[in-house]
Amino acid sequence: MATAYYGIMEKEPGTLWGVWFPDVPGCITAGETADEASRKAVSALREHLEGLEPPTASAAEALMADPDVIEARERGGILIRVPFLPNEAATVRVNVTLERGTLAAIDEAATARGMTRSAFLATAAMEKVRASV
Prior knowledge:
By secondary structure, the protein is an alpha+beta fold. Helices cover 43% and strands 16% of the residues. It has a 4-stranded antiparallel sheet with strand order 3-2-1-4, sandwiched between helices. The longest helix has 16 residues, at 34-49.
C-alpha cells in the first residue's frame, strides 16, 4: 500500500477549506469544497516532498496527542488520510491482459475524453488508488 500521511482539514466561516500536514511542515493547500481540498492535498504532498526524503508518517494515535492537532480538532478540524504518490516521471511499458469488450470500452472512453489508452488507464488507476487510502 502507498505511504499515507494524515492531514488536518479545517474551515472557518468565509474561508476556503484548508488542509495542512503535521508531519510535513509548510505543506498546505485549500479548496472551495472539502472534496476539492482533499484532492488537492495529494498534489500538495507530491510537490512539497519532490526531491526530498519523505518524513516518517505518524500513526493517527500519535497525532491525536499532538497539541497542534488537539487545538485544530477543538476548532472543528478533522483528520484525513492522504496518499503520498511520488512523481516518478519515467514511464514504464507494461503488458496487460484484458477481455476484448473491456478494451473496446476503454478505448471508446479514452477517445471521448481526448486521451490515449495509456493516459486513460493511468488516470483511472490513480483515482482508485487515491480512493483506497
